[in-house]
Specification:
With 228 residues, the chain is of the alpha/beta class. It has helices at 17-28, 35-48, 56-63, 93-102, 106-122, 132-136, 150-163, 170-186, 208-227; strands at residues 6-10, 31-34, 68-73, 76-81, 84-85, 125-129, 142-147, 199-202. It contains nine helices and eight strands. The radius of gyration is 17 Å and the shape is globular. Pfam families: Cytidylate_kin. It comes from Lacrimispora xylanisolvens.
């Protein structure tokens, strides 16, 4: 039976996890699983129903009517919510904030983690999120904790939004990032933290290419260790 390889990338909002994981997966010919996109799709479902992120009872009920799946078109991940491709609708600040606020609720996590574990059991995957190495894939072959200072993360997001023609405030973006860090690190279920056996990569002064090359090198080292 062919061995299935899993790489877990965790870290705070805006650290570049999705960009790095997507590029590394492409180079390794692995399936890229953007778990954050799955939580954002669920958050969009709650927003459409007008549910408060604090209303745990309503969220628990709404989870039952949300079917979040992944599809791939030309190697690009598409996020499907109840049969609708919502990939282009889930990247707004409103959806991101809702995803961070509602991911603290256990029913949300249980529903999505089941899907994530199933994917990783069948395919070579690179999966990124907040609790991949600690909870979703505790036996991953390589775990990375990718971070950067809140200011650097805010500047990257600011430039990204400006390029899209959106009016935004750097100070407000950084304030939101710091707030989301606090929420993610202090939630009751599966808080964001570095797994004990994860490699810490601070990308504050690294280019995306440097981070990707480092991850690929670490993965090759792990495979060599396994064979020896």
């Amino acid at each position: 039976m062919t061995k299935v390889y899993n790489i877990a990338i965790d870290g705070p909002a805006g650290a570049g996890k999705s960009t790095i994981a997507r590029a590394a997966a492409s180079k390794l010919n692995f399936v890229y699983v953007d778990t954050g996109a799955m939580y954002r799709a669920m958050a969009l479902h709650f927003l459409r129903k007008g549910i408060s992120p604090q209303d745990e009872a309503a969220i628990s009920e709404a989870v039952k009517t949300a079917d979040v799946t992944l599809a791939y078109e030309n190697g690009v991940q598409q996020v499907i919510l109840n049969g609708e491709n919502v990939s282009g609708l889930i990247r707004s600040e409103e959806v991101g904030a809702m995803a961070s606020a509602t991911s603290v609720h256990l029913p949300v996590r249980e529903k999505l983690v089941e899907l994530q574990k199933g994917l990783a059991a069948r395919e070579n995957v690179i999966m990124d999120g907040r609790d991949i190495g600690t909870c979703v894939l505790p036996d991953a072959d390589l775990k990375i904790y990718l971070t950067a200072s809140s200011r650097v993360r805010a500047e990257r997001r600011y430039l990204e939004l400006k390029e899209k023609g959106q009016d935004c405030s750097l100070e407000e973006i950084e304030k939101d990032i710091i707030k989301r860090d606090h929420q993610d690190m202090n939630r009751e279920h599966s808080p964001l933290k570095q797994a004990e056996d994860a490699v810490l990569l601070d990308s504050s002064e690294m280019s995306a290419r440097e981070v990707i090359e480092r991850i690929l090198m670490l993965f090759e080292e792990r495979k060599l260790e396994e064979r020896s």
